[in-house]
Amino acid sequence: MSKTNKGLLDQAWSMTTESQLWRSIFRHGYPDTPLNQSLVMMGNVFLHLHPVKVSRKAMKITYTWCLGGLSFFLFLVLTITGVFLMFYFVPEQTVAYANIQQITSAVAFGNIVRNMHRWAAHLMVVTVTLHMIRVFYHGAYKPPREFNWVVGVILFLVTLLLSFTGYLLPWDQIGYWAITVGSNMASYAPIFGAQVHNFLTGQPVGVGQPTLVRFYTLHVIGLPLVGAIMMAVHFWRIRKDGGEAGPPPPSRRELEAARAESQNVPVSALN
Amino acid sequence: MTTTEPRPATEARPAATQKRYRTLAVVKQEAVTRIEKQLEDSVFVWPHLLVREFFAALMMSVVLTVLSIVINAPLLDHANPNLTPNPAKAPWYFLGLQEQLHYFPPTVAGVLLPGFVLVALAMLPYVDRNPSRSFEDRKLSITVFTACALFFAVTILMGSFFRGSGWQWIWPWQGLFFNL
To answer: Do A178 and B90 touch (CB under 8 A)?
Structure first.
C-alpha cells in the first residue's frame, strides 16, 4: 500500500492521466465539472460537432428517435465493413461472383461482415427516409433551416445511389437484373436517354464489365466522398442554423388564446 | 447613523467562493427572463446527450449483429445475361417506380416522376412559405406530404409482394418474388 492509501489501479490511472503524453492529447480533466464538460466538447474534434449544452426538449428520444444519428452510425458501419470486403473483392465479371462465394465461405468472419454490410445498407435507406419524414412533420425544414433540408435531400439521393451501385457488385442474378431494370429506366430520360444510360453503364446496351467497374468505383469512393462532404455540411449547418429545431411551438390559435387571456379578453370574443 | 457598519456577507465566506457584484449594464426585465428560461431548459451534452447517442448506437449494433447472424445476405446464381428472371425486379426502394411502369410510359414513370419528386422535395422549404411549425397551422402541407408518402409506401409494397411473373397481380401466399 502506498502512503496515500490508494489502490494500484488508482495509482496507475493517475500516473497515466498526469503523464505528458496523456496531457498532450487531453488538455482537460475528466468531464465531471461544468468547466471540463465544456472543454471536452470544444477540444475534441469528434465531439465539437455537438454544442456544449443542448435543449432538454430537443434531446428527447421520442422527439428525434435518433434517426439522423443512427443513419450516420450505419454509414460508419458500412465504411468499416466495406473496407474489409474490398480486401477480397475484385470488380471483374469472371471473378466477382467467386470472390463473394469466397468471402461467405472461406474468409474468417467474411460471412457475418458481408451480412452486416447488406443489412446495414438496407437499414440506412430506411433510417434516412424516416429521418426525412420526421423532419417534415416537425416542420424543421422551415427557415432558417431551408438549405440544410436541401442538403438532406442530396444525402437521401446519395444513400439510394450507394445502395443501388452496391447491388450490382456480387454479380449474381439479383444484382445483374435489378441494375438492368434500373438502368433501362434511365435510358427513357427525355432527349439525353442514350447518353445517361451510356454514362451509367459504360456501354450502349445492357450491363457488362464497364458497368461493374463504374458501379464499383462510384460505390467505394465516388459516392462515399460526396456523401462525406455533404454530411460535413449537413452537421455543420445544424449548429449554424441554431441546433435542433425542437418540438413545434404552439399553434396560432393557442398563441392568440394566450394573448387574449393575458389581456383579460374572453377567448370567445375573438371568434 | 452608526459608525459600525455590518460586514458584507461575502467576506464571511472563504476567499475562493467569494462573489463580488458590480453594475456593468442595466438589462431590461424581459431580456433577463428570456435568458433565464433558456438556461433552465438546457443540459450538458456530456453526459446527457452522448449517453443517449451511445445507447442508440449500441442498440443498433445489437440489432445488426443479431440480424447478420440469423439471416444470410442473398446470393443467387452467377449473373446470366441470357436468362432473364421473370419478373426482373429493381431494388425494393425503386419498386414503387417499377410499379408505376405498369400504368405510365417509361419516360413518365422512370424519369419524370422520380425527377419531379426529388426537385419537389428540394424545393419544399421555398414553396411552403407558411412560417408556423405547429401541426394545426399546417393542415394542407401535412395532408399533401402524407398522401405522397403513403402513395410511395403502398406502391413499393405492391411492387414488392403483390407482383409475380409478367408483373401479374399475385397474393403473397401464392408465391413471393422478392429479394433484398
So the answer is: yes
Which residue in chain B has the smallest CA separation from A165? B91
A54: enclosing H helix or E strand: strand A53-55
User: Could you give the number of structural domains in chain B?
Assistant: 2
Q: Are residues B102 and B169 in the same domain?
A: yes
* Phi, psi dihedrals of residue A172, rounded to the nearest 5°: -105, 180
Query: Is there a contact between B125 and B117 (Cβ–Cβ < 8 Å)?
Result: no
Whether B98 maps to a domain, the answer reads: yes
Total-model pTM: 0.86
Q: Which three cell numbers stand for residue A75?
A: 454509414
What is the tens place of the pLDDT at every residue in B37-96?
545 578 999 899 999 999 999 999 999 999 999 999 999 999 999 999 988 888 999 999
* Residue B65 in domain: yes
Residues of A in contact with B92 (CB under 8 A): 122
pLDDT tens digits, A87-141: 999 999 999 999 999 999 999 999 999 999 999 999 999 999 999 999 999 999 9
Cβ–Cβ of B45/A150 closer than 8 Å?
no
Chain B residues with beta carbon closer than 8 angstroms to that of A137: 135, 142, 145
Residue ranges and CATH numbers for the domains of chain A are 64-241 (1.20.810.10)
